Amino acid sequence: MSKTRAKVAAIDPVWMRICEEAHDAVGQEPLLGALIHAGLLHHATMEKALAYRFSLKLASGEMSEQLLREIADDAYGSDPDLGQAARADLVAVFDRDPACHRFLQPILFFKGYQALQSYRVAHWLWRQGRKDMAYFVQMRTSEAFGVDIHPAARIGRGVMIDHAHSIVIGETAVVGDNVSMLHSVTLGGTGKEEQDRHPKIGNGVLIGAGAKVLGNIHVGDNSRIAAGSVVLADVPRCKTVAGVPAKIVGEAGCAQPSVNMDQQLRGCDCEG
């Protein structure tokens, strides 16, 4: 390893691994060489690569790649937490998704990861008071990825959104660190109230496919929500809930459900 590469690996091991995988991928599939060079190897940092991907995927006749690239570069340059969150999200996907075999996959191919990073730029715009631009990014993220996250929602680090189709997260929702959710999850309201009206999801929570969590309720740390459930009331920490409406059916089954990703209801009192 050259001295330059060694320094990069020491400072940013995630980005270094992505670049090494990218070189290997070009050798294995030369037809993707242009895509991989443009998307990854052409850039000096992961933040620059993310800004490029953001602009490429969200550009339209209404907003050019150049303008979106400038917005994303400004966001990543102004707030280092965006890049750190992106790394934590990427490692989460790699650790939890058995279909993810390399670090480069989420950046290039996984719409859940890309949509989440687009939301993070929109949230940065929202916090800067640039709400109309934030709404534009929300709209394009929904159109491009099928994921609709309000830019005012607050989402922690190390979040995995698997498959990601039809994810909806409302304006006053809060999602903690190290949360995993599958496709068709809704964190929504229950009516027309305009104040705090969306769920608060604790750290380490696993939300199964198709689950609907509605209203200003709290889902405790390290709990599990079974696929297809409709949650309308608070969920204590370290519990499993299932059903319509959801009720407690047992313990969470492990210390970190979002990492373990076990969605079976073994050991739960599913009858009563």
TrEMBL record:
Enzyme Commission designation: 2.3.1.30
UniProt keyword Transferase, yes or no: yes
Record bears the keyword Transferase: yes
Any one Gene Ontology BP term: cysteine biosynthetic process from serine
GO molecular function terms listed in the Swiss-Prot or TrEMBL record: serine O-acetyltransferase activity
Record SMART domains: SATase_N
This protein's GO CC annotations: cytoplasm
Xref: Gene3D superfamilies: Hexapeptide repeat proteins, serine acetyltransferase, domain 1
Reaction catalysed by this enzyme: L-serine + acetyl-CoA = O-acetyl-L-serine + CoA
Keywords for the protein's UniProt record, in alphabetical order: Acyltransferase, Amino-acid biosynthesis, Repeat, Transferase
Serine acetyltransferase N-terminal domain: residues covered: 14-118
EC main group: transferase
InterPro entries documented for this protein: Hexapep, Hexapep_transf_CS, LbH_SAT, Ser_AcTrfase_N, Ser_AcTrfase_N_sf, Ser_O-AcTrfase, Serine_acetyltransferase, Trimer_LpxA-like_sf
Signal peptide boundaries: none
Pathway(s) this gene product operates in, as recorded in its UniProt entry: Amino-acid biosynthesis; L-cysteine biosynthesis; L-cysteine from L-serine: step 1/2
Similarity comment: Belongs to the transferase hexapeptide repeat family.
Protein name: Serine acetyltransferase
Gene name of this polypeptide: cysE1
